[in-house]
Design goal:
Helix 2 packs parallel to helix 6 and helix 3 crosses helix 9. The protein is globular. The protein has a domain of 201 residues: FAD/NAD(P)-binding domain, CATH 3.50.50.60. The strands form 3 sheets. Strands 1, 2, 8, 9, 10, 11, 17 and 18 form an 8-stranded mixed beta sheet that branches. It has 10 helices and 18 strands. With 445 residues, the chain is an alpha/beta fold. The longest helix has 33 residues.
C-alpha cells in the first residue's frame, strides 16, 4: 500500500528531532521484538491510546498485554504535538451536533470530553509524572474583530448548555492578562485547560504500564497479520506474536496496510510546530505576553501557541501537502514569518526546532472507539487535534470493551462510537484537503 505522503513522514528509524526530544534522553528505553511470543492482547501503537489501554488492561483486569511501536516509544504524534489539553475532539459545530445527534447525546459528548481532560490531569497526579504542567485554562483569541462575536457565542453555549466555566475578555482586557499583537481582538477562556510536555507525559505513562506488567517493544513495526484457528499471528522483525485480540491504536499514522476493515477511513493531516530560542524579558514584555496558558488563534486554519517554561515560544499551524523533509523546512520558514507578522516586536527571533506530525481526521468528524463486528479487533482513532484530552481516556474506555467483548458496556456518547464511513475515492484525500485549505485561507483573509 503506497503512502499518502512522502516516505520521510514514515521513517520509523529516524528520531523526530523535536524540542521535546531535546529535553529527554530516549536511549535504551525499551527493547525490540527478538523472539516468538504468546499473549492475550496485542496493541499496535505506542502513543497515548495504546499505552493507556495497555495500562488499564493489565492493572485493572490482569490481562497479558504486548504493546508494539514501530519507532521508538515517543516517535508518534503523542509526543510530537504541542501539549495542549483542549476541547472538543471534533470538527463539527455544536449546532450541527444538536441537529445530527440530538441534545442528549451532544451534552453527553461534552461531558465525556471534560472527563477526558480531567483523566489526563488525574494520571499526571496519580503517577506523579513530571511533565512540565502549565496553565489553568485555555484561551481562544479572535484574530479579527469579526471573530469576536463567534467567540462570545461559543462561550455562552459552553456555559449554558454544558456547564463549562468560561469568561470573555475584550481586546484591552486581554492586552493585560494575555498578550498584545496584530491578531488579537479579544478572547475567551474555558476550564479545564492546561499544557504539558507531551513526551514526558507519554514516557511517564509507559513506565507505569511496564510496572504493571505490560510488555513494551519499540522499533517493532508490524509487517503483516494472519488469522489462523481463531488466533492472530502478528509478524514483527521476523518473529511471530500469537494473540487472542488486537488493538489498532496508530491514529494518523495508520497506512491502510494491516486491517481491511479500517482502510480508507482516516485522513492524516500534517501539523507543523516550531520552537524559538528563549525570549529575553524585554521581548516578552514588548508584547506583554504574561500568560503560560495555551492559546488558540481561532482563524479557520488555526494557529496555536504558548510560552514555554524556559521562555521559548512554541507556535503551531497546519502543514503542507507533501510531507518531505524539504517541505517541512520551507513550512517552518513560513511559520517564522507568521510569528513576526503577528508579533512584530519579535523580528529578531530565530527558530531552533521544527518538526511535524499527523492529525487524524475522519468523515464523521468525531472520534471512533469500538470493535469490528464478528472479530476480536478493536480500535480508537480520530481525535481531530485533541489527543492530549481524548486519547488517554479513549484508551481507558477501550479497555472496558476488550475485557467484556461487548461495545454495549460503553456508556459514553454515541458521537464516539462506531467506524466512520470510508472516504469516497480515497486516493483523492489530499486533493479534498487542498480544496479545503484554499477555501479556508480565503475566508481567513
Amino acid at each position: 500500500m503506497s503512502n499518502l505522503y512522502h516516505s520521510d513522514m514514515y521513517n520509523f528509524k529516524e528520531p523526530v528531532k523535536s524540542y521535546w526530544e531535546n529535553t529527554y534522553n530516549l536511549k535504551n528505553q525499551y527493547k525490540k521484538v527478538e523472539s516468538n511470543i504468546k499473549t492475550d492482547v496485542v496493541i499496535i501503537g505506542g502513543g497515548y491510546t495504546g499505552i493507556s489501554c495497555a495500562l488499564n488492561l493489565s492493572k485493572n483486569f490482569n490481562i497479558d498485554v504486548v504493546l508494539l511501536e514501530a519507532g521508538h516509544i515517543g516517535w508518534g504524534s503523542s509526543a510530537r504535538n504541542a501539549g495542549f489539553c483542549c476541547i472538543p475532539p471534533a470538527k463539527m459545530s455544536v449546532e450541527k451536533m444538536f441537529k445530527k445527534f440530538g441534545e442528549k447525546e451532544t451534552k453527553k459528548f461534552f461531558k465525556n470530553t471534560i472527563e477526558g481532560s480531567n483523566y489526563t490531569k488525574n494520571l499526571i497526579t496519580e503517577y506523579n509524572i513530571d511533565c512540565d504542567l502549565t496553565g489553568e485554562c485555555n484561551y481562544e483569541v479572535a484574530p479579527h474583530p469579526s471573530y469576536f462575536k463567534s467567540i462570545q457565542k461559543e462561550a455562552e453555549i459552553y456555559k449554558t448548555q454544558f456547564g463549562i466555566e468560561t469568561e470573555i475578555f475584550s481586546k484591552e482586557e486581554f492586552n493585560q492578562i494575555g498578550h498584545t499583537g496584530k491578531e488579537q481582538y479579544g478572547a475567551m477562556s474555558y476550564k479545564p485547560g492546561f499544557a504539558i510536555n507531551p513526551l514526558k507525559f507519554l514516557l511517564g505513562l509507559s513506565k507505569k504500564a511496564q510496572f504493571y506488567g505490560v510488555k513494551i517493544f519499540q522499533n517493532s513495526k508490524v509487517e503483516k497479520i494472519k488469522k489462523i484457528s481463531n488466533k492472530f499471528n502478528i509478524f514483527v522483525n521476523g518473529y511471530n506474536i500469537s494473540s487472542n485480540k488486537i488493538v489498532l491504536a496508530t491514529n494518523g499514522f495508520y497506512k491502510d496496510d494491516l486491517i481491511p476493515h479500517l482502510n480508507d477511513r482516516i485522513l492524516p493531516v500534517i501539523s507543523n510546530i516550531i520552537v524559538t530560542r528563549p525570549l529575553t524579558n524585554d521581548e516578552i514584555q514588548s508584547h506583554n505576553f504574561s500568560t503560560h496558558n495555551p492559546i488558540l488563534n481561532v482563524r479557520n486554519l488555526l494557529f496555536y501557541y504558548r510560552l514555554l517554561k524556559d521562555k521559548r515560544f512554541l507556535f503551531g499551524a497546519r502543514g503542507d501537502l507533501l510531507g518531505s523533509n524539504k517541505s517541512s523546512k520551507i513550512m517552518a520558514q513560513k511559520m517564522e514569518m507568521q510569528i513576526k507578522k503577528i508579533f512584530p516586536n519579535w523580528n529578531k527571533l530565530k527558530i531552533e526546532f521544527y518538526w511535524r506530525g499527523f492529525v487524524a481526521v475522519t468523515t464523521k468528524l468525531t472520534p471512533s472507539i469500538g470493535k469490528i463486528k464478528n472479530e476480536e479487533i478493536y480500535y480508537s482513532f480520530g481525535y481531530h487535534a485533541n489527543g492530549v484530552n481524548t486519547a488517554p481516556w479513549a484508551g481507558k474506555e477501550l479497555s472496558k470493551i476488550i475485557n467484556g467483548s461487548n461495545s454495549k458496556d460503553l456508556l459514553i456518547s454515541k458521537l464516539y462510537l462506531g467506524l466512520p464511513k470510508k472516504f469516497i475515492f480515497s486516493t483523492l484525500r489530499l486533493f479534498y484537503l487542498r480544496l479545503a485549505y484554499i477555501y479556508y485561507s480565503i475566508i481567513d483573509r
